[in-house]
Specification:
- The protein is of the alpha/beta class and 242 residues long.
- The chain is built from seven helices and eleven strands.
- It is 31% helix and 23% strand.
- Strands 1, 2, 3, 4, 5, 8, 9, 10 and 11 form a nine-stranded mixed β-sheet that branches. A two-stranded antiparallel sheet has the order 6-7.
- Helix 3 packs across helix 4.
- It is globular.
C-alpha cells in the first residue's frame, strides 16, 4: 500500500501484484462519504473476495472540514452540505423532494474526482474499460454524477448508500449506462438518505437498461457484509472479462 498525491489529492493505492498497485489487473476507485477521513474505505481492499491482481485507489476528498469550522475533526467532503437545510427537510418529511437540487460545489467535486481518475489511468495503466468507479454516500453521488456525463463508460459502478441529486441534469445521461453493471446497496432504515429515493434510483437504472445488482439490507447508513459480498462479485466479474 502506498500514498500518492494525484491531481492535488491524497490517494491511497493498494492491491495488485506488489500490493502497491502493480500489474495490469482491473482498478477499483472508491470515493468516501461526507465527514469521513480520506482513508475511510481503505480497509475494504483486504475484506473483498477478489483476485490478487485487482488494484484499488482511494482518493481523499478535496475539502478539509476542520478548516471550514464544520466540527468534523479529520473529516473531509466532496462538497459542503447545508446541515440546517437538511435537518429542516427531515423534520418536515421532505427528504425525498430534494432530488432536483444541484448542490453548490458538486461540479468542482466532479472535476476533482475526474482529474484523479484520468491520472490514475496513466499512472497505473488502467483503461476505463477495466475501471470500476464507486463510493459510499456522498461518494456514491459523485460516482453517479460522473458516470451519467462521461462518454466513455466505466467497467462497472458501485453505489453504496447513495441518493439522487441534480436529477434534471442526471436524467439525460442515464442512457450512457446501458449494459453497465451497477451494484447499488441501501439500508431500509437509513436515517440520512431515504430508502425510497434509493429505490427510485434503482428503477431509473433499470429503465436505462443498466445491469443492476440491487442490495437492500436491514439497517442504516452503513456497509454490511452482504454489500461486500456483492461488491466482490462485481469486481470478480470485471476481472474475468478480459
Amino acid at each position: 500500500m502506498r500514498r500518492e498525491t494525484i491531481a492535488g489529492l491524497s490517494v491511497v493505492i493498494a492491491g495488485g501484484t506488489d500490493r502497491e498497485g502493480g500489474g495490469d489487473g482491473p482498478l477499483v476507485v472508491l470515493l468516501h462519504g461526507f465527514g469521513a477521513p480520506g482513508d475511510d474505505l481503505v480497509p475494504l481492499y483486504r475484506q473483498l473476495d477478489v483476485p490478487h491482481e485487482v488494484r484499488f485507489a482511494f482518493p481523499a476528498a478535496p475539502l478539509d472540514l476542520r478548516t471550514l469550522g464544520a466540527g468534523y475533526a479529520g473529516g473531509r467532503a466532496w462538497w459542503m452540505i447545508d446541515v440546517a437545510a437538511l435537518d429542516a427537510a427531515m423534520r418536515g418529511g421532505q427528504r425525498e423532494r430534494r432530488t432536483d437540487v444541484v448542490p453548490e460545489g458538486l461540479a468542482a467535486a466532479r472535476e476533482a474526482a475526474k482529474d484523479v481518475i484520468r491520472e490514475l489511468e496513466t499512472l497505473l495503466g488502467a483503461p476505463r474499460s477495466r475501471t470500476i468507479l464507486g463510493g459510499f454516500s456522498q461518494g456514491a453521488m459523485v460516482t453517479m454524477d460522473i458516470a451519467v456525463r462521461e462518454e466513455q463508460p466505466f467497467a462497472g459502478l458501485a453505489l453504496m448508500s447513495g441518493s439522487i441529486v441534480a436529477e434534471n441534469e442526471w436524467t439525460p445521461g442515464f442512457a450512457r449506462l446501458r449494459g453497465i453493471p451497477v451494484m447499488q446497496s441501501h439500508g431500509r432504515s437509513d436515517p440520512l438518505l431515504p430508502f425510497a429515493t434509493a429505490e427510485r434510483l434503482r428503477d431509473q437504472l433499470h429503465a436505462a437498461a443498466a445491469d443492476v445488482r440491487w442490495v437492500p439490507f436491514p439497517g442504516g447508513h452503513t456497509i454490511t457484509s452482504s454489500v461486500l459480498t456483492e461488491l466482490g462479485r462485481l469486481v470478480r466479474d470485471v476481472a474475468a472479462a478480459r
